[in-house]
Amino acid sequence: MLGHLEFSLWLVRERSSLTGTFSYKNFVPDILVAGKGLTGGYAPLSAVISSREILEPIARGSGAFNHAQTFSHTPVICAAGVAALRYLKAHRLVERCRSLEAPLFAALSRLRRFPQVGDIRGRGLLAAVEFVRDRVTRQPFARAERFVERVTARAFEHGLLIWPNVGHVDGRDGDLVIVAPPFVIEEAQIDDLASRLERALEDVVRAA
Prior knowledge:
By secondary structure, this protein is of the alpha+beta class. It contains 8 helices and 6 strands, in the order ααββααααββαββα. The chain has a 4-stranded antiparallel β-sheet. A two-stranded antiparallel ribbon has the order 1-2.
C-alpha cells in the first residue's frame, strides 16, 4: 500500500496514467478502489477495479461480490461516469497531463528561490509545494504560525485557488499546498499560475 491511499488514487485517476503511476513503484495492483473524480465532479461515484486473476474465480463461484450500498447501481450516476471516462479517452486528456508535467514543474521550480520552500514534488498535473522553517534541517513551521493558510489566502486574493494541507511531519506540523490545475490548462496559463503563487509567497514572506 502506498503512503496515503486517497492521495495515491487521486494521482492515478486524475493527474497521471494508471500504468505510468504504478510502474515507477514497480508493481501493478490487483484491486483498485477509485472515486472522487470518476465522473468529473458531476455526480458522486466510486468503483472497484480488479484484475482478471481476481475476478475469474469469483465469476466461477458465487458470480457476485457480497456487498451492497443504499445508493449503489444508480444508472444516472453510472452514465455520468461513463461519459466522463469517454471524454477523457477521446480527448487524450490523461496523456495531455503527462505532456504538461515538465512545463508545470519547470514553472513551479521558480519558487525554490524562497528559503521557505523545502521541496516541490509530484507527477503529471498534481504537485505539492512544501513549506519549511529551515530548508537544511527540514524543520517545519509551527502549526500556530498558520503559514500555509496565509499563503493560500494571499493566493486567493491573486486569483489562484490552491489546496492547503497540514500535519505531514507529525500529524500536526508540516505545511504544503497542492497545486492541481485542470486537464485543459494551457502552457501559458501554467506560467501564470506559478507567477500568482510566487506573488502570494512573496507577500507572506515580506509580511513576516
